[in-house]
Amino acid sequence: MLNNIIRSALLLVLAAAISACGFHLRGNIPLNDNIKNMFVSAPEGPFKDQLEKILTTSGAQLSATDAGADVLLVVTKAATSRSVGTLDDLGKANSYRLKFVVAYSLNDPAGANIRPSSRLVETRQYNFDPERVIESEAEEAELQESMEQDIALRIVRQLSSITDYVATDSVAK
Questions:
Q1: Which architecture, in CATH terms, is 29-160?
Q2: I want to staple 85 with a disulfide (CB 3.0 to 4.6 A). Which of 37, 95, 122, 144 is the partner?
């Protein structure tokens, strides 16, 4: 009986501590109301889809056109490169390094920077076995998806720190 009371009290204290520190579930990062109505300009593909999904989860309302948005999230670069990580004793690659680079800025409808251009980089390394090419390709695809999600989450976290932006009367909708 006493164990249950102590366990309940500890869980209550833990829940209070987690909520007090600003903890949010992964991908659930609240955005400032002044930047929620946004247009995303990014290269078409899985990264843009991932970014838009996380933004929507964070409360953003994505505008179909830049004219209908309070802010413009402009992704100027979203590129992956692969290089040899290590070589075996015969000089053949036995690991590869993936690098995913994203450059973005947040602008008001007039084009002025709210958040200047930022460059984010994620890297991953994986082992390559020529006897298991299909498994290596699958691992590379999983790592690519993981890097895209991590960068998208970092962008949203950085955007969530913008608390002082207020749309001007000429720009406000």
A1: 2-Layer Sandwich (3.30)
A2: 95
